[in-house]
Amino acid sequence: MTTQDAPIGVFDSGLGGLSVLDAMRALLPRESVLYIADSGYAPYGEKTDAFIQQRSKAIADWLVERGAKMLVVACNTATTHAIRHLRSTFSMPIVGVEPGIKPATLATSTGIVGVLATAATLRSERFKMLLAEHEARCRFVCQAGHGLVEEIERGHLQGALVEDLLVRYLTPMANAGADTVILGSTHFPLLAPTIRRLFGDRFTLIETGSAIARRVQALLPEHGLAARGLSPGRIEYFSTARTHDQRQALVAIAKQLPMSDLRVTVSGVEIGHALADL
């Protein structure tokens, strides 16, 4: 296999990165991808900073060993806490997730923006610095989406519990006057249809999958890595999920995505790391 024909390695704490993969597939259909859902350790948002960094490094090592030519950290939490370490470790291009704060400030009319993210993202210094850069223009109403990632990991994109959590988290944003909501986890764009059903056109939803895909598209030829073939690239799915039901949740959600191949199969993998799961 030539370097150009090698796959792009994409990973997330679980199923959220499928929203990024879908955007990449739409823009870069010739590229092959190795996608890892680290569902056995999700959600990262409830883990320590040291755990997130070590876990991200272990997965990146696994992808590089299997020939990945580029890494996409399709996880807000892992990007926030680990991408600097990954870039200092690997020489290949590494693309992470930006929180979408700047496009949200440009989209809002009221000057009030809601942020639905994981607890780890909200507490990170990087995220706090990004907020501080734009606080003169906007007021941000931040909320940790406790429980939502876990429901998505079970394959639940709607239903009573998901809807109850969304109403609980987004109603205060609406009451505060927010007209724009940043979906600050790659898991949360998967809930966009449910959010729109519950809140109508109350919010402009900001997600970053398309921006990530465009960044990958720009970097591939810059580094001489763009696929040369004319046929569609191959997508391989892997999961660290410990149960068959968890792996089937990945299959179920992947099949719902616009650019998905309906013949989705998932291989279970074990990826060790240095720290205990604390």
UniProtKB/TrEMBL annotation:
Alphabetical UniProt keywords: Cell shape, Cell wall biogenesis/degradation, Isomerase, Peptidoglycan synthesis
Q: Which domain of life is it from?
A: Bacteria
Gene Ontology biological process: cell wall organization; peptidoglycan biosynthetic process; regulation of cell shape
Q: Where does substrate bind?
A: 12-13, 44-45, 76-77, 186-187
Q: Which reaction does it catalyse?
A: L-glutamate = D-glutamate
* Active site residues of this protein: 75 (proton donor/acceptor)
Q: Name one GO molecular function term.
A: glutamate racemase activity
User: Pathway membership of this protein?
Assistant: Cell wall biogenesis; peptidoglycan biosynthesis
Q: Which gene encodes it?
A: murI
Full protein name: Glutamate racemase
Task: Please list the coiled coil stretches.
Answer: none
